[in-house]
Design brief:
Elements lengths: L9 E2 L1 E3 L2 E3 L6 E5 L6 E6 L3 H16 L1 H4 L3 H17 L1 H12 L3 H8 L3 H13 L4 E2 L5 E9 L2 E5 L5 H15 L2 E5 L6 H12 L7 E3 L4 H10 L3 E7 L2 H12 L4 E5 L5 E4 L5 H13 L11 E5 H17 L18 H17 L3 E4 L18 E4 L6 H4 L6 E7 L2 H8 L4 E2 L1 E5 L3 H10 L4 E4 L14 E2 L2 E2 L4 H6 L2 E9 L19
Parallel strand pairs: 1-5, 8-9, 8-11, 9-10, 11-12, 13-14, 13-19, 14-17, 16-17, 19-20
Antiparallel strand pairs: 2-3, 4-5, 6-7, 7-23, 12-22, 15-16, 18-21
Helix pairs in contact: 1-9, 3-6, 4-5, 6-7, 9-10, 11-12
Length: 506
Protein backbone atom coordinates (compact mmCIF):
# COMPACT_ATOMS: atom_id res chain seq x y z
CA UNK A 1 0.00 0.00 0.00
CA UNK A 2 1.34 3.38 -0.92
CA UNK A 3 1.93 6.13 1.59
CA UNK A 4 3.16 8.66 -0.95
CA UNK A 5 1.40 11.98 -1.24
CA UNK A 6 2.76 12.75 -4.70
CA UNK A 7 0.06 13.61 -7.19
CA UNK A 8 0.20 10.93 -9.84
CA UNK A 9 -2.48 9.23 -11.93
CA UNK A 10 -4.49 6.61 -10.09
CA UNK A 11 -5.51 3.79 -12.42
CA UNK A 12 -8.46 1.52 -11.75
CA UNK A 13 -9.38 -1.88 -13.14
CA UNK A 14 -10.65 -2.27 -16.70
CA UNK A 15 -13.87 -4.28 -16.63
CA UNK A 16 -16.81 -4.31 -19.02
CA UNK A 17 -15.26 -1.79 -21.35
CA UNK A 18 -14.44 0.90 -18.83
CA UNK A 19 -12.07 1.76 -16.03
CA UNK A 20 -13.61 1.15 -12.62
CA UNK A 21 -12.33 1.45 -9.04
CA UNK A 22 -11.45 -1.64 -7.09
CA UNK A 23 -13.63 -2.70 -4.18
CA UNK A 24 -10.83 -1.93 -1.69
CA UNK A 25 -8.88 1.34 -1.36
CA UNK A 26 -5.41 -0.27 -1.45
CA UNK A 27 -3.06 1.23 -4.04
CA UNK A 28 0.24 0.00 -5.41
CA UNK A 29 2.99 2.30 -6.65
CA UNK A 30 4.28 1.98 -10.21
CA UNK A 31 7.90 3.17 -10.33
CA UNK A 32 10.07 4.34 -13.23
CA UNK A 33 13.07 2.00 -12.77
CA UNK A 34 15.46 4.47 -14.40
CA UNK A 35 14.72 7.36 -12.06
CA UNK A 36 12.97 5.90 -9.02
CA UNK A 37 10.06 8.31 -9.59
CA UNK A 38 6.45 7.23 -9.25
CA UNK A 39 4.63 6.98 -12.57
CA UNK A 40 1.20 6.06 -11.27
CA UNK A 41 -0.71 4.18 -8.63
CA UNK A 42 -2.81 1.15 -9.49
CA UNK A 43 -5.69 -0.63 -7.84
CA UNK A 44 -5.13 -3.85 -5.93
CA UNK A 45 -7.94 -6.12 -7.08
CA UNK A 46 -9.66 -8.24 -4.43
CA UNK A 47 -11.17 -11.69 -4.89
CA UNK A 48 -14.52 -9.98 -5.47
CA UNK A 49 -12.98 -7.81 -8.22
CA UNK A 50 -11.48 -10.86 -9.88
CA UNK A 51 -14.84 -12.59 -9.77
CA UNK A 52 -16.51 -9.56 -11.32
CA UNK A 53 -13.95 -9.49 -14.15
CA UNK A 54 -14.24 -13.20 -14.92
CA UNK A 55 -18.04 -13.07 -14.90
CA UNK A 56 -17.88 -10.11 -17.26
CA UNK A 57 -15.73 -12.13 -19.66
CA UNK A 58 -18.04 -15.15 -19.34
CA UNK A 59 -20.99 -12.94 -20.23
CA UNK A 60 -19.15 -11.44 -23.20
CA UNK A 61 -18.13 -14.89 -24.42
CA UNK A 62 -21.74 -16.09 -24.38
CA UNK A 63 -23.23 -12.93 -25.88
CA UNK A 64 -24.74 -13.19 -29.33
CA UNK A 65 -22.62 -10.25 -30.47
CA UNK A 66 -19.43 -12.23 -29.84
CA UNK A 67 -20.39 -15.91 -30.05
CA UNK A 68 -22.40 -15.54 -33.27
CA UNK A 69 -19.82 -13.39 -35.02
CA UNK A 70 -18.77 -14.93 -38.33
CA UNK A 71 -15.14 -15.84 -38.89
CA UNK A 72 -14.73 -13.13 -41.52
CA UNK A 73 -16.30 -10.47 -39.36
CA UNK A 74 -14.08 -11.48 -36.45
CA UNK A 75 -11.02 -11.40 -38.67
CA UNK A 76 -11.90 -7.88 -39.83
CA UNK A 77 -12.21 -6.77 -36.20
CA UNK A 78 -8.87 -8.33 -35.24
CA UNK A 79 -7.21 -6.60 -38.20
CA UNK A 80 -8.77 -3.34 -37.05
CA UNK A 81 -7.19 -3.86 -33.61
CA UNK A 82 -3.84 -4.21 -35.36
CA UNK A 83 -4.43 -0.91 -37.14
CA UNK A 84 -5.36 0.83 -33.87
CA UNK A 85 -2.25 -0.58 -32.22
CA UNK A 86 -0.10 0.78 -35.04
CA UNK A 87 -1.77 4.19 -34.94
CA UNK A 88 -0.79 4.61 -31.28
CA UNK A 89 2.74 3.26 -31.39
CA UNK A 90 4.51 6.45 -30.37
CA UNK A 91 2.48 6.75 -27.16
CA UNK A 92 2.98 3.05 -26.48
CA UNK A 93 6.76 3.23 -27.01
CA UNK A 94 7.16 6.05 -24.51
CA UNK A 95 4.94 4.52 -21.84
CA UNK A 96 6.43 1.03 -22.16
CA UNK A 97 9.98 2.37 -21.87
CA UNK A 98 9.16 4.53 -18.85
CA UNK A 99 7.38 1.61 -17.19
CA UNK A 100 9.85 -1.24 -17.61
CA UNK A 101 13.17 0.50 -18.23
CA UNK A 102 14.01 -1.11 -21.54
CA UNK A 103 15.92 1.14 -23.92
CA UNK A 104 13.74 3.08 -26.32
CA UNK A 105 15.42 1.55 -29.36
CA UNK A 106 14.77 -1.96 -28.07
CA UNK A 107 11.16 -1.07 -27.29
CA UNK A 108 10.63 0.28 -30.81
CA UNK A 109 12.17 -2.78 -32.41
CA UNK A 110 10.01 -5.18 -30.40
CA UNK A 111 6.68 -3.41 -30.03
CA UNK A 112 6.48 -2.25 -33.65
CA UNK A 113 6.09 -5.90 -34.71
CA UNK A 114 3.22 -6.72 -32.37
CA UNK A 115 0.39 -5.70 -34.74
CA UNK A 116 1.55 -8.59 -36.93
CA UNK A 117 0.44 -11.03 -34.24
CA UNK A 118 -3.13 -9.85 -34.65
CA UNK A 119 -2.96 -9.96 -38.45
CA UNK A 120 -1.51 -13.46 -38.44
CA UNK A 121 -4.21 -14.78 -36.13
CA UNK A 122 -6.90 -12.97 -38.10
CA UNK A 123 -5.69 -14.98 -41.07
CA UNK A 124 -5.96 -18.20 -39.07
CA UNK A 125 -9.52 -17.30 -38.10
CA UNK A 126 -10.48 -17.15 -41.79
CA UNK A 127 -8.38 -20.15 -42.81
CA UNK A 128 -9.54 -22.54 -40.06
CA UNK A 129 -10.98 -25.82 -41.27
CA UNK A 130 -12.83 -28.61 -39.55
CA UNK A 131 -11.92 -32.15 -40.54
CA UNK A 132 -13.78 -34.91 -42.36
CA UNK A 133 -12.34 -38.23 -41.18
CA UNK A 134 -12.44 -41.55 -43.09
CA UNK A 135 -13.76 -44.26 -40.74
CA UNK A 136 -14.84 -47.90 -41.10
CA UNK A 137 -18.39 -48.48 -42.20
CA UNK A 138 -20.94 -46.32 -43.98
CA UNK A 139 -20.48 -43.19 -41.90
CA UNK A 140 -19.73 -39.52 -42.28
CA UNK A 141 -17.42 -38.43 -39.47
CA UNK A 142 -16.47 -34.79 -39.08
CA UNK A 143 -15.23 -32.46 -36.33
CA UNK A 144 -16.54 -29.20 -34.98
CA UNK A 145 -14.25 -26.84 -33.12
CA UNK A 146 -15.74 -24.49 -30.58
CA UNK A 147 -13.91 -21.75 -28.61
CA UNK A 148 -13.09 -22.93 -25.09
CA UNK A 149 -14.23 -19.83 -23.16
CA UNK A 150 -12.47 -17.39 -20.85
CA UNK A 151 -8.66 -17.28 -20.82
CA UNK A 152 -6.90 -16.01 -17.68
CA UNK A 153 -3.50 -14.53 -18.50
CA UNK A 154 -0.84 -13.50 -15.98
CA UNK A 155 1.93 -11.53 -17.68
CA UNK A 156 5.44 -10.60 -16.43
CA UNK A 157 7.29 -7.30 -16.18
CA UNK A 158 10.05 -7.90 -18.71
CA UNK A 159 8.09 -7.68 -21.98
CA UNK A 160 4.70 -6.36 -20.87
CA UNK A 161 2.99 -5.98 -24.24
CA UNK A 162 4.84 -8.57 -26.29
CA UNK A 163 4.13 -11.44 -23.94
CA UNK A 164 0.56 -10.33 -23.42
CA UNK A 165 -0.09 -10.01 -27.16
CA UNK A 166 1.26 -13.52 -27.84
CA UNK A 167 -1.78 -14.79 -25.91
CA UNK A 168 -4.27 -12.02 -26.59
CA UNK A 169 -4.15 -12.27 -30.39
CA UNK A 170 -5.13 -15.97 -30.69
CA UNK A 171 -7.54 -15.64 -27.76
CA UNK A 172 -9.63 -12.97 -29.48
CA UNK A 173 -9.20 -14.38 -32.99
CA UNK A 174 -10.49 -17.78 -31.86
CA UNK A 175 -13.61 -16.27 -30.30
CA UNK A 176 -12.51 -16.61 -26.67
CA UNK A 177 -12.46 -13.77 -24.15
CA UNK A 178 -9.83 -12.91 -21.56
CA UNK A 179 -8.97 -11.48 -18.17
CA UNK A 180 -5.37 -10.25 -18.02
CA UNK A 181 -3.41 -9.62 -14.83
CA UNK A 182 -0.26 -7.70 -15.77
CA UNK A 183 2.74 -7.49 -13.49
CA UNK A 184 2.25 -4.93 -10.75
CA UNK A 185 5.53 -3.38 -11.94
CA UNK A 186 4.44 -2.79 -15.55
CA UNK A 187 0.64 -2.57 -15.95
CA UNK A 188 0.30 0.74 -17.75
CA UNK A 189 0.53 -0.25 -21.42
CA UNK A 190 -1.85 -3.18 -20.90
CA UNK A 191 -4.46 -0.82 -19.44
CA UNK A 192 -3.89 1.56 -22.35
CA UNK A 193 -4.34 -1.18 -24.95
CA UNK A 194 -7.58 -2.43 -23.38
CA UNK A 195 -9.07 1.07 -23.61
CA UNK A 196 -7.90 1.56 -27.20
CA UNK A 197 -9.34 -1.80 -28.28
CA UNK A 198 -12.77 -1.17 -26.77
CA UNK A 199 -12.83 2.26 -28.43
CA UNK A 200 -12.05 0.46 -31.71
CA UNK A 201 -15.09 -1.78 -31.38
CA UNK A 202 -14.05 -4.75 -29.27
CA UNK A 203 -17.14 -5.76 -27.25
CA UNK A 204 -17.01 -4.81 -23.54
CA UNK A 205 -15.90 -7.74 -21.41
CA UNK A 206 -13.94 -9.46 -24.17
CA UNK A 207 -10.69 -8.00 -22.78
CA UNK A 208 -10.68 -7.20 -19.06
CA UNK A 209 -7.65 -6.11 -17.03
CA UNK A 210 -7.21 -6.54 -13.29
CA UNK A 211 -4.19 -5.21 -11.44
CA UNK A 212 -2.65 -6.36 -8.19
CA UNK A 213 -0.09 -8.69 -6.64
CA UNK A 214 0.59 -12.24 -7.75
CA UNK A 215 -0.01 -13.98 -4.39
CA UNK A 216 -3.42 -12.28 -4.02
CA UNK A 217 -4.94 -11.09 -7.30
CA UNK A 218 -3.04 -13.57 -9.45
CA UNK A 219 -3.90 -16.45 -7.15
CA UNK A 220 -7.61 -15.57 -7.19
CA UNK A 221 -7.58 -15.48 -10.99
CA UNK A 222 -5.76 -18.80 -11.38
CA UNK A 223 -8.18 -20.49 -8.99
CA UNK A 224 -11.35 -19.11 -10.55
CA UNK A 225 -13.66 -21.87 -11.81
CA UNK A 226 -14.86 -19.65 -14.66
CA UNK A 227 -11.56 -19.99 -16.52
CA UNK A 228 -11.32 -22.42 -19.41
CA UNK A 229 -7.60 -21.78 -19.93
CA UNK A 230 -4.76 -20.47 -17.78
CA UNK A 231 -1.76 -18.74 -19.32
CA UNK A 232 1.24 -17.64 -17.28
CA UNK A 233 4.67 -16.36 -18.18
CA UNK A 234 6.85 -16.20 -15.10
CA UNK A 235 9.05 -18.16 -12.74
CA UNK A 236 8.96 -21.92 -12.48
CA UNK A 237 7.68 -21.89 -8.92
CA UNK A 238 4.83 -19.54 -9.86
CA UNK A 239 4.00 -21.94 -12.68
CA UNK A 240 3.84 -24.90 -10.31
CA UNK A 241 1.60 -23.08 -7.83
CA UNK A 242 -0.83 -21.46 -10.26
CA UNK A 243 -0.80 -24.45 -12.58
CA UNK A 244 -1.94 -26.67 -9.73
CA UNK A 245 -4.70 -24.18 -8.89
CA UNK A 246 -5.96 -23.97 -12.48
CA UNK A 247 -5.58 -27.72 -12.89
CA UNK A 248 -8.00 -28.32 -10.03
CA UNK A 249 -10.69 -26.85 -12.32
CA UNK A 250 -9.37 -28.80 -15.34
CA UNK A 251 -8.48 -25.61 -17.17
CA UNK A 252 -6.27 -25.86 -20.23
CA UNK A 253 -2.81 -24.43 -19.58
CA UNK A 254 0.06 -22.75 -21.35
CA UNK A 255 2.98 -21.99 -19.05
CA UNK A 256 6.20 -20.31 -20.19
CA UNK A 257 8.50 -20.44 -17.20
CA UNK A 258 12.18 -20.03 -16.34
CA UNK A 259 15.16 -20.59 -18.59
CA UNK A 260 18.93 -20.86 -18.62
CA UNK A 261 19.72 -20.76 -22.31
CA UNK A 262 22.92 -22.51 -23.43
CA UNK A 263 24.80 -21.04 -26.40
CA UNK A 264 27.23 -23.49 -28.04
CA UNK A 265 30.02 -21.58 -29.80
CA UNK A 266 32.10 -23.80 -32.11
CA UNK A 267 35.56 -22.91 -33.31
CA UNK A 268 34.59 -22.66 -37.00
CA UNK A 269 32.48 -19.56 -36.27
CA UNK A 270 33.86 -16.01 -36.43
CA UNK A 271 34.79 -15.00 -32.88
CA UNK A 272 33.85 -11.34 -33.27
CA UNK A 273 30.40 -12.28 -34.58
CA UNK A 274 29.99 -14.81 -31.75
CA UNK A 275 30.80 -12.08 -29.23
CA UNK A 276 28.31 -9.69 -30.80
CA UNK A 277 25.60 -12.36 -30.62
CA UNK A 278 26.61 -13.16 -27.04
CA UNK A 279 26.21 -9.53 -25.94
CA UNK A 280 22.88 -9.27 -27.76
CA UNK A 281 21.62 -12.56 -26.31
CA UNK A 282 22.72 -11.80 -22.76
CA UNK A 283 22.19 -8.07 -22.29
CA UNK A 284 19.13 -7.08 -24.35
CA UNK A 285 16.32 -6.10 -21.99
CA UNK A 286 18.99 -5.85 -19.27
CA UNK A 287 19.13 -9.64 -19.40
CA UNK A 288 15.58 -9.90 -18.08
CA UNK A 289 14.36 -12.48 -20.55
CA UNK A 290 13.57 -16.17 -20.08
CA UNK A 291 15.67 -16.83 -23.19
CA UNK A 292 18.67 -14.78 -22.05
CA UNK A 293 21.83 -16.32 -23.52
CA UNK A 294 23.30 -16.57 -20.05
CA UNK A 295 25.45 -19.69 -20.59
CA UNK A 296 28.07 -19.20 -23.29
CA UNK A 297 29.68 -22.60 -23.84
CA UNK A 298 32.75 -22.01 -26.00
CA UNK A 299 35.13 -24.44 -27.74
CA UNK A 300 38.55 -24.53 -26.13
CA UNK A 301 40.80 -23.21 -28.91
CA UNK A 302 38.83 -19.94 -29.24
CA UNK A 303 37.88 -19.68 -25.56
CA UNK A 304 40.50 -17.15 -24.40
CA UNK A 305 39.94 -14.85 -27.36
CA UNK A 306 36.15 -15.03 -26.85
CA UNK A 307 36.39 -14.18 -23.15
CA UNK A 308 38.70 -11.22 -23.77
CA UNK A 309 36.50 -9.77 -26.51
CA UNK A 310 33.22 -10.36 -24.68
CA UNK A 311 34.60 -8.56 -21.62
CA UNK A 312 35.60 -5.61 -23.80
CA UNK A 313 32.20 -5.60 -25.47
CA UNK A 314 30.38 -5.59 -22.14
CA UNK A 315 32.48 -2.67 -20.91
CA UNK A 316 31.66 -0.67 -24.05
CA UNK A 317 27.86 -0.79 -23.66
CA UNK A 318 26.34 2.61 -22.86
CA UNK A 319 24.24 2.56 -19.68
CA UNK A 320 21.70 5.25 -18.88
CA UNK A 321 18.12 6.46 -18.86
CA UNK A 322 16.42 4.34 -21.53
CA UNK A 323 14.35 7.21 -22.89
CA UNK A 324 17.62 8.55 -24.38
CA UNK A 325 17.95 7.03 -27.87
CA UNK A 326 21.75 6.78 -27.49
CA UNK A 327 21.46 4.52 -24.42
CA UNK A 328 22.06 0.80 -25.05
CA UNK A 329 21.27 -0.67 -21.62
CA UNK A 330 18.66 0.49 -19.14
CA UNK A 331 17.97 -0.56 -15.55
CA UNK A 332 16.48 -3.75 -14.21
CA UNK A 333 12.86 -3.35 -13.22
CA UNK A 334 13.07 -2.84 -9.45
CA UNK A 335 15.30 -2.51 -6.42
CA UNK A 336 14.42 -6.10 -5.57
CA UNK A 337 15.63 -7.30 -8.95
CA UNK A 338 18.78 -5.21 -8.66
CA UNK A 339 19.57 -6.88 -5.34
CA UNK A 340 18.94 -10.30 -6.86
CA UNK A 341 21.50 -9.69 -9.61
CA UNK A 342 24.02 -8.31 -7.11
CA UNK A 343 23.52 -11.36 -4.91
CA UNK A 344 24.44 -13.64 -7.82
CA UNK A 345 27.52 -11.55 -8.51
CA UNK A 346 28.50 -12.19 -4.90
CA UNK A 347 27.80 -15.92 -5.37
CA UNK A 348 29.97 -15.98 -8.49
CA UNK A 349 32.84 -14.26 -6.69
CA UNK A 350 32.78 -15.77 -3.23
CA UNK A 351 30.94 -19.10 -3.45
CA UNK A 352 31.62 -20.32 -6.99
CA UNK A 353 35.07 -18.66 -7.21
CA UNK A 354 34.56 -17.85 -10.89
CA UNK A 355 36.65 -15.20 -12.64
CA UNK A 356 34.94 -11.81 -13.01
CA UNK A 357 36.11 -10.18 -16.25
CA UNK A 358 33.55 -7.37 -16.67
CA UNK A 359 30.97 -5.48 -14.64
CA UNK A 360 29.96 -6.80 -11.27
CA UNK A 361 28.70 -3.61 -9.67
CA UNK A 362 26.30 -0.70 -9.77
CA UNK A 363 27.42 2.06 -12.19
CA UNK A 364 29.15 4.95 -10.44
CA UNK A 365 27.54 7.70 -12.57
CA UNK A 366 25.74 10.00 -10.07
CA UNK A 367 22.90 10.52 -12.57
CA UNK A 368 22.00 6.83 -12.29
CA UNK A 369 21.95 6.42 -8.54
CA UNK A 370 18.18 6.71 -8.15
CA UNK A 371 17.58 4.00 -10.72
CA UNK A 372 18.05 0.24 -10.55
CA UNK A 373 21.12 -0.21 -12.74
CA UNK A 374 23.67 -3.03 -12.85
CA UNK A 375 26.72 -3.12 -15.09
CA UNK A 376 26.79 -5.81 -17.80
CA UNK A 377 28.56 -8.62 -15.99
CA UNK A 378 30.70 -11.44 -17.41
CA UNK A 379 32.12 -14.38 -15.46
CA UNK A 380 34.70 -16.70 -17.05
CA UNK A 381 36.04 -20.14 -16.12
CA UNK A 382 32.59 -21.23 -15.01
CA UNK A 383 32.01 -24.94 -14.47
CA UNK A 384 28.80 -26.98 -14.43
CA UNK A 385 28.76 -27.38 -10.65
CA UNK A 386 28.62 -23.63 -10.02
CA UNK A 387 25.35 -21.96 -9.07
CA UNK A 388 25.81 -19.23 -11.67
CA UNK A 389 25.88 -21.97 -14.34
CA UNK A 390 22.71 -23.68 -13.08
CA UNK A 391 20.43 -20.95 -11.68
CA UNK A 392 18.49 -18.25 -13.51
CA UNK A 393 19.73 -14.75 -12.61
CA UNK A 394 17.41 -12.58 -14.75
CA UNK A 395 19.70 -9.65 -15.23
CA UNK A 396 22.64 -8.44 -17.38
CA UNK A 397 24.72 -11.43 -16.36
CA UNK A 398 26.50 -14.06 -18.44
CA UNK A 399 28.87 -16.94 -17.71
CA UNK A 400 31.45 -18.49 -20.06
CA UNK A 401 32.35 -22.18 -19.92
CA UNK A 402 34.97 -24.11 -21.92
CA UNK A 403 34.36 -27.34 -23.86
CA UNK A 404 36.49 -29.49 -26.17
CA UNK A 405 34.34 -31.94 -28.14
CA UNK A 406 30.83 -31.63 -29.56
CA UNK A 407 29.64 -34.36 -27.20
CA UNK A 408 31.04 -32.50 -24.18
CA UNK A 409 29.44 -29.26 -25.32
CA UNK A 410 26.04 -30.91 -25.71
CA UNK A 411 26.35 -32.54 -22.31
CA UNK A 412 27.05 -29.15 -20.72
CA UNK A 413 24.23 -27.48 -22.64
CA UNK A 414 21.68 -30.09 -21.57
CA UNK A 415 22.84 -30.13 -17.94
CA UNK A 416 19.98 -27.96 -16.69
CA UNK A 417 16.52 -28.38 -15.21
CA UNK A 418 15.35 -25.80 -17.80
CA UNK A 419 14.56 -26.36 -21.44
CA UNK A 420 13.15 -23.21 -23.01
CA UNK A 421 15.73 -22.23 -25.62
CA UNK A 422 19.20 -23.01 -26.91
CA UNK A 423 21.51 -21.51 -29.54
CA UNK A 424 24.33 -22.73 -31.79
CA UNK A 425 27.14 -20.78 -33.44
CA UNK A 426 28.67 -22.73 -36.32
CA UNK A 427 29.24 -22.56 -40.09
CA UNK A 428 28.93 -26.35 -40.43
CA UNK A 429 25.36 -26.94 -41.63
CA UNK A 430 25.51 -30.66 -40.86
CA UNK A 431 26.63 -29.97 -37.31
CA UNK A 432 23.94 -27.30 -36.93
CA UNK A 433 21.14 -29.76 -37.71
CA UNK A 434 22.75 -32.55 -35.66
CA UNK A 435 23.22 -30.44 -32.54
CA UNK A 436 19.83 -28.73 -32.86
CA UNK A 437 18.15 -32.14 -32.80
CA UNK A 438 20.01 -33.10 -29.63
CA UNK A 439 19.48 -29.91 -27.62
CA UNK A 440 16.80 -30.53 -24.97
CA UNK A 441 14.67 -27.41 -25.38
CA UNK A 442 11.67 -26.04 -27.24
CA UNK A 443 13.41 -23.33 -29.30
CA UNK A 444 16.78 -23.39 -31.09
CA UNK A 445 18.51 -20.55 -32.92
CA UNK A 446 21.41 -21.21 -35.27
CA UNK A 447 23.60 -18.14 -35.73
CA UNK A 448 20.97 -15.86 -34.23
CA UNK A 449 19.20 -15.15 -30.96
CA UNK A 450 15.90 -13.77 -29.61
CA UNK A 451 14.16 -14.27 -32.95
CA UNK A 452 10.38 -14.55 -32.56
CA UNK A 453 7.71 -14.77 -35.24
CA UNK A 454 3.91 -14.99 -34.92
CA UNK A 455 3.94 -18.14 -37.07
CA UNK A 456 6.64 -20.01 -35.17
CA UNK A 457 5.69 -22.07 -32.07
CA UNK A 458 7.22 -20.81 -28.82
CA UNK A 459 7.56 -22.70 -25.56
CA UNK A 460 9.70 -25.00 -23.47
CA UNK A 461 10.09 -28.39 -21.87
CA UNK A 462 11.15 -29.61 -18.41
CA UNK A 463 11.02 -26.82 -15.81
CA UNK A 464 10.50 -24.25 -18.57
CA UNK A 465 6.81 -25.08 -18.87
CA UNK A 466 4.18 -26.66 -21.08
CA UNK A 467 2.19 -25.69 -24.15
CA UNK A 468 3.08 -23.42 -27.05
CA UNK A 469 2.42 -19.83 -27.95
CA UNK A 470 2.43 -18.51 -31.52
CA UNK A 471 1.78 -20.46 -34.68
CA UNK A 472 -1.17 -22.68 -35.44
CA UNK A 473 -0.29 -24.60 -32.29
CA UNK A 474 -1.38 -21.71 -30.08
CA UNK A 475 -4.49 -20.86 -32.11
CA UNK A 476 -5.67 -24.48 -32.06
CA UNK A 477 -5.27 -24.67 -28.27
CA UNK A 478 -8.20 -22.26 -27.90
CA UNK A 479 -10.78 -24.77 -29.17
CA UNK A 480 -12.57 -27.88 -27.97
CA UNK A 481 -12.93 -30.49 -30.69
CA UNK A 482 -16.25 -32.28 -31.07
CA UNK A 483 -16.53 -35.42 -33.17
CA UNK A 484 -19.81 -35.88 -35.07
CA UNK A 485 -20.51 -39.36 -36.53
CA UNK A 486 -23.48 -39.83 -38.86
CA UNK A 487 -24.70 -43.24 -40.05
CA UNK A 488 -25.46 -42.98 -43.77
CA UNK A 489 -27.66 -46.05 -44.31
CA UNK A 490 -31.05 -46.99 -42.94
CA UNK A 491 -30.52 -50.72 -42.62
CA UNK A 492 -32.46 -52.29 -39.73
CA UNK A 493 -30.61 -52.45 -36.45
CA UNK A 494 -31.38 -54.50 -33.33
CA UNK A 495 -28.36 -55.45 -31.32
CA UNK A 496 -30.32 -57.76 -29.07
CA UNK A 497 -32.09 -59.71 -31.82
CA UNK A 498 -29.01 -61.45 -33.10
CA UNK A 499 -26.10 -60.31 -31.01
CA UNK A 500 -23.63 -62.98 -32.07
CA UNK A 501 -23.75 -62.02 -35.76
CA UNK A 502 -23.47 -58.29 -35.25
CA UNK A 503 -20.28 -56.50 -36.35
CA UNK A 504 -17.86 -55.26 -33.68
CA UNK A 505 -19.09 -52.51 -31.42
CA UNK A 506 -16.13 -50.23 -31.97
Amino acid sequence: MSTSSKQVPIRGLFIDGKEVPASLPDLLDVINPATGEMLAQISHASDADVDKAVKSSVKAFSSSEWSSMSNRTRAKLINKLADVFEANLEEIYTLETANNGRSLNETRAQVSRLPDFFRYNAGLAIARRDSVIPVDGNYLNYTLRTPIGVVGNSTPFNHPLMIMVKSLAPTLASGCTTVVKPSEYTPLTTLLLARLFVEAGLPPGAFNVITGLGPTTGKALAEHPGLAKWVLTGGTEAGRITGASAGANFAHQTLELGGKTPVLVFDDFDVDQAVNYAAFGAFIGAGQTCICGSRQIVQANIYDEFVEKLAAKAKSIRIGNPIDASVQLGPVVSAKQQQRVLSYINIGLNEDKARLVAGGKIPTDPALQNGFFVEPTVFADVTRNMRIFQEEVFGPFVSVTKFTTEEEGLDLANDSPFGLAGAIRTNDVTRAHRVAAKLKCGIVWVNDHHRLDPASPWGGIKDSGIGRECGTESFDQHFETKSVMIRLDDAPFDWYKDTASQPRLN
